[in-house]
Amino acid sequence: MKLFRFAAVLAVLAGPAYAQMPNLNLLQEAPSKTPEEKAAEAERDKAYKETLKKIPDSKTSNDPWGGMRSDPPKQPAAPKASAATSVPKKTKSGTAAN
Fold first, then answer.
1. Measured between alpha carbons, how far is 45 from 51 in angstroms, rounded to an integer?
2. How many CB atoms lie within 10 A of CB 60?
3. What pLDDT does residue 22 have?
């Protein structure tokens, strides 16, 4: 009777551990390729690579917003010294100071 209980406890504990194991299939389900199929696949791959070499390289970016800030921000122009001295300063009362 103890053996039956031990087997039941072991089965209950082994269930979740078994569910976590990866599903490995060591046998191939599909038959291997024949030499003719391998040669045809190699020819297709070669033609594909040659076609990729014929595609020209892209020289420009397709980014429509790429040129929005190509230059650094411009600094504001410094005020001219002669223009600042020619304008009379106003006082709080609104009259010009001489």
1. 10
2. 6
3. 77
Q: Is pLDDT above 60 for 86?
A: no
Q: Using a CB cutoff of 8 Å and minimum separation of 24, what contacts does 29-33 make?
A: none
Q: What is the 3-state secondary structure (H, E, C) of the chain?
A: CHHHHHHHHHHHHHHHHHHCCCCCCCCCCCCCCCHHHHHHHHHHHHHHHHHHHHCCCCCCCCCCCCCCCCCCCCCCCCCCHHHHHHCCCECCCCCECC
What was the pLDDT predicted at 89?
62
Contacts of 14 (CB under 8 A, 6+ apart): none
Q: What are the structure tokens assigned to 42, written together?
A: 């190699």
- Round to whole Å and give the CA distance between 84 and 96: 14
Of residues 10 and 97, the one with the higher pLDDT is 10
Tokens of 52: 């990729």
Amino acid present at 51: T
